[in-house]
Design brief:
This protein is an all-alpha fold. The protein has helices at residues 3-23, 28-42, 50-53, 55-60, 65-104, 113-141, 145-161, 165-183.
Length: 191
């Protein structure tokens, strides 16, 4: 790929993530869904379900999910330059908006019915987007009864005992290694 092509892709990555981050509310999961549509269906730079399938990896590294989605997508499309362009694109709208809010926060009537209603609407839509991400991830993450049992165990441990998510993830890593070592013939190769 020529340097000119990399520059064009990097500009596109910045602009697409800037647009996504400017209009999509709901955080990383919502951005993941929109990014998957744009970079799979529109640009054909990623494989179908690639972002959804790598969500586990994206979530296990430090940082915001939206930023990690942008970094992963950018790197896959155009290397380190693409990762930086995508991360800058996804972060810039939030930086501008949060800076403006911080400047005028004292003037925002937090207890006003319109503001309360807006927050209620955003929380409701965000919940729907998280559920959509859950459903998409479910299809590739839970493929056996053994995995379903571990899913239920992790869910109940989190809900009933308020376990630290880090311990749950560590248990998931160990579970995955155990599952792969003893049941590897049942796992389809990652594509």
């Amino acid at each position: 790929m020529t340097q000119k092509n990399h520059l064009k892709i990097n500009i596109t990555l910045f602009w697409e993530f800037f647009k996504i981050s400017s209009v999509v509310l709901g955080g990383g999961y919502a951005i993941l869904l929109v990014a998957e549509d744009i970079f799979v269906k529109k640009h054909h730079w990623l494989k179908p379900n690639e972002l959804t399938n790598t969500l586990t990896l994206i979530q296990t590294v430090p940082g915001l999910t939206a930023g990690n989605v942008a970094i992963y997508t950018g790197y896959q499309c155009s290397g380190i330059g693409g990762a930086l362009a995508a991360l800058t694109g996804v972060a810039t709208p939030s930086f501008i908006i949060i800076t403006a809010i911080a400047m005028f926060f004292h003037n925002i009537p937090i207890d006003h019915p319109l503001v309360i209603g807006a927050f209620l609407g955003v929380r409701t839509c965000t919940t729907a987007l998280v559920i959509v991400a859950f459903i998409r991830m479910w299809k590739s993450a839970i493929t056996s009864k053994f995995q379903f049992f571990f899913f239920l165990t992790a869910l109940m441990t989190t809900l009933l005992f308020h376990s630290n998510p880090g311990w749950i993830i560590l248990a998931g890593i160990l579970f995955g290694i155990f599952y792969f070592l003893f049941f590897f013939h049942k796992i389809a190769p990652y594509k």
